Amino acid sequence: MIDFDRYTPLLQDGGRILLLVVDGLGGYPEADRGSELEDAHTPNLDALAARGITGLTEPAGPGITVGSGPGHLALFGYDPWRYDLGRGVLAAVGTGFPLQPGDVAARGNLAFLNDDSLVSDRRAGRISDDRAAPLTERVQQRLDADPPVAGVEVFLRHVSEHRVLLVLRGEGLDARLADMDPQDTGLAPLQARPLGSADARTASVVDAVDAAVRAALAEESDEASPDVALFRGFDGLREMPDFGERTGLRAAAIASYPMYRGVAQLVGMEVLHGPDGPPSSMADQIALARAARDTHDFLFVHYKYADAAGHDGNREAKVEALERLDVDLPALLEAADADVVVVSGDHASPAAVSGHSWHPVPTLLAGGSAGVDDVTTFGERACAGGLLGLRPTEHLLPLALGAAGRLAKYGA
Length: 412
Hints:
Elements: E1 17-22, H1 36-39, H2 43-50, E2 52-58, H3 68-75, H4 87-95, E3 104-113, E4 119-121, H5 129-145, E5 153-160, E6 163-169, H6 200-218, E7 228-235, H7 243-247, E8 251-254, H8 258-266, E9 270-271, H9 282-292, E10 298-303, H10 305-311, H11 315-336, E11 340-344, E12 361-367, H12 380-383, E13 389-392, H13 396-403
Parallel strand pairs: 1-10, 1-11, 2-13, 8-9, 8-10
Antiparallel strand pairs: 2-12, 3-4, 3-6, 3-7, 5-6, 11-12
């Protein structure tokens, strides 16, 4: 665990840092082929690896599969075991929902059920924003007209595509609830269940809300409409140590998806938007990076598409997503004009497992006083031989601070 209280007296001015997070970057080689990253044509990532040092990182320890929340917190230098945040809170903050102390928030997936009431598609065919947003509004109207639980306000908001946000507001609610999403097809949605010593009342409230949401969705005339919202990541609002105070950095976040804007905002980063709102493409992100380089000395840029393809089990799409990023990389590096560049991922998302996995994540650190190693390609097996070695993800930020000259000498 990194104790940033030890770093605070050493902080000093130094170079600018770019952290490029390729969501779901990692995978694993197989007997007859490489990982998606190894098989992708990525000359620009390879060149960046060749002028820096490389390694493999583990967000929460050997063998542990993490969600995106703890994976990003580790990249920001936070112990993911100590500061884990549920997806509900991250989605709420990322979408600008006015979450209050005592609220219970959860992320939900609109999903299809088969005739046996088992999950047949956890993402409702990746329903479009144009369909999902008005659908969510209609469900909210039905919940308002017929509240499922007396004394509890229910807020259902569209986040992006199949993703929705659920917030419950009322006296005595307890956010310590297990996920209701079975995380796979062919299984039944789970009932709400209290964790540890949590009061069972909140679980019964969530079950009533779940039933009401299903009933509201059933009123839709479109046969292709979702059947259920699978809720997970229950949590409540809490305060986090400020990133800027811990690091001395003026940090900005550039992310298309609300959840990643949420985790950045919760740790005190400024979340950047363009004139039309959050960035919707890498071109938008590059423009924001260029505009921010004179006002911020730390840029967090998030790239989602490799992870989405991994979740879909689509190996070819993940390879293509990595190759598209590689094409855009020179423009991003020019726009950010950073002295030190870190490229890593929050977790692995191999297409072979159609989701997150425990596998270590390829990582590179280039610029400043980082130095170079013998690695000339960016991939799992190549990075395994790099000077960074195999290390906890939360070590990356202090290493970047050191490479950027932002840590003074300790001791005489």
